[in-house]
Amino acid sequence: MLKGVSARIGIVLAGFFCLVVGSVFVTLRAIETQAKDALIINLAGRQRMLIEGMTGVALSPVFRGKGAAQATHSAEAFDSTLKALLHGGSVPYGGDARQAGTRVILPLTEDPEIRSRLLSIQALWQRFRSLLEEAMNAPPGSRAQADAAEGVSRISPGLLGQMDGVVRLFQNWSERKLGRLRQIQMALLGAGLLMLAGGFLLSHRMIVRPLQLLEGAARRIGRGNLAEGVPVSGPGEVGVLGETLDAMRVQLNASREALLLSHQNLEERVARRTQELAALHQVSNEITSRLQVEEVLNSVVEKARQLLRAEVAALCFCDESGSLMKVQAFSGPEGVITQRVVSVQKESGGVAPAVMSTGHAMACGDERCQEGCGAIDPEYQRSHLVAPLRIGGEMIGALCVGHRDPNMNWKDSVTLLDRLAASASIALENARLHRQAERLAALEERQRVAADVHDGLAQSLSALNHRLERTAELISRGEADNALLELEQAHRAMENSAGHVRELIADLRNGGGQSTLQDLLWKIRERFSREGGPAFQMSIEEDSAILLDPALAAGVERILWEALTNVRKHARTPEVQVSLKRESGRVQCTVSDRGSGFDPQAQREGGTLHFGLQIMQARAARIGAHLDVHSRPGEGTMVVLSWPEAREVSVAGEPSR
């Protein structure tokens, strides 16, 4: 059974070809038949002419010579033609000189009426020919010749009438054959038209209509309608095309659903990550605004429990010996803390001792995960996560979270808990510094230093917040790769901020004495180079050391560092110059570059003076110094800080480096 569209169309075309060939054959056959019939009719008509000629010769008064020979030739032609008309065969045909000697083959006459008429003619012809021969053989002018001529004249009309009848019968017979051929041609034409109509209907049903349905289905798919199936089915190439298109629709629908599910999961992850980052920012703000360690630590454990979807969170600190840890804050159900003090010796086992020994966050499931946090109820240790607390590289404690579900996934939570632990470490050290500041005699000076710490942290956290907002914006636009880069930069910025804070804390812990400006500049240069700034060129014109008290040293350091930070961020220059000199009883430090520069006057007139410049001006005023900023777009920037010289010692100046 033929199933393919091409096979069915091929059959229709083959049938149509056969009809065309048959029609051509019938037409050629009709032409050939008509030519033969015309020849027969012409020969039959010639028989009548031969009779008339022979009759005229017989009635001629002079029946000799050429006339007799012509009559004899005509009699032979009539006799052979009559036999050929009756029985078929070859007969001479030549009406003029061009056709002389031509012979044609006549078919056997099968029509009974024509044969009967030809037989009657043959009988009359025999009598006519015998009388013609008698007239030709009788003496001229004799009674016998006259009687024979009279007999020829008497038989000739009947013979001529019979020949006319035969001609009409041959004409009718020919017309009947042509009529049958026309009927066959009409039948072939009708069959051809029917076949064309069938081909049209077949092509419409098997090609045009299915293609229209496929077009509609393709348009629906293009508009996003993937629920409605493709209505084309069945055998043949079009059916295969419909099945293929429907399979593609099903696959696209499945891909779209998977994409929507992935998008939904991504949105949930983004929302959760945004919530985590916002919580980190909130904790950082609390660090800068609160000095009560209990409040900050309680906030840290509460945020850790909420963000990590844990059931319990605990914050523990090591004692002075480093062998024991005490729970300082926790969030969770009552009675979840089974003991307040636990051992952190390696041999005691558990995640917390392992974290304290390795210095990085660890989740349960690690090969060193044994007994978890010893202070938490074992029921909540089925799944737990611990991060270390560090101050200046020293382990001071651990932040623990736990859950009763052993299948809890902490894959994306290790970094978050580590950052929360870092925030807790900073909060603790900040509180310690505050208590230390309260115990110092120079309370006002320590409060100013604390304000400086606060300002530095605020700038760092503001930059971090800007990166977090930028990250959220990139995520909302679907730029996941750029968002990850922004998060990494935010992470590095937070680590740098924590390092700066720890350096400030370390300076405060060792502060109280005087330092020299030269040492301070070398220290700034070393830090600037370590953080990847442009090439640092320093020029010190003074041999004698310039002493600075702690407040002045802190202010000068903050102002110079802010100027160098602006060079690194905005100047786009490969080199920065820092110079030191005395001039007219004042000490002058200059930071200059050949970078892009800006227009300070335009910022002042527009009321948009850069926030960093405002802070630098305020700090200069606080330490009794004067700050000048000179810059033009495209010509670089020069920041000049000067203050009255207080003391001078004649000690060797520039330290060896």
Entry keywords:
657 residues, alpha+beta, Four Helix Bundle (Hemerythrin (Met), subunit A), Beta-Lactamase, 6-stranded antiparallel sheet, 5-stranded mixed sheet, disordered C terminus
Brief synopsis:
One of its GO terms (molecular function) is protein dimerization activity. This protein is an alpha+beta fold and 657 residues long. The protein has 14 helices and 15 strands.
Structural class assignment: alpha+beta
Integer-rounded radius of gyration: 62 Å
Q: Order of strands side by side in the largest beta sheet?
A: 5-4-3-8-7-6
Please state the average pLDDT score: 75
- Could you give the distance between the termini? 99 Å
Describe the structure.
With 657 residues, the protein is α+β, with helices and mostly antiparallel strands. The protein contains 14 helices and 15 strands. It has a six-stranded antiparallel beta sheet with strand order 5-4-3-8-7-6, with helices on both faces. A five-stranded mixed beta sheet has the order 10-12-13-15-14, with helices on one face. A hairpin with a 2-residue loop joins β12 (575-583) and β13. α1 packs antiparallel against α2, α3 (112-137) runs antiparallel to α4 (143-222) and α9 (443-476) packs parallel to α12. The protein is rod-shaped. The protein starts with a helix and ends in a 13-residue tail after the last strand.
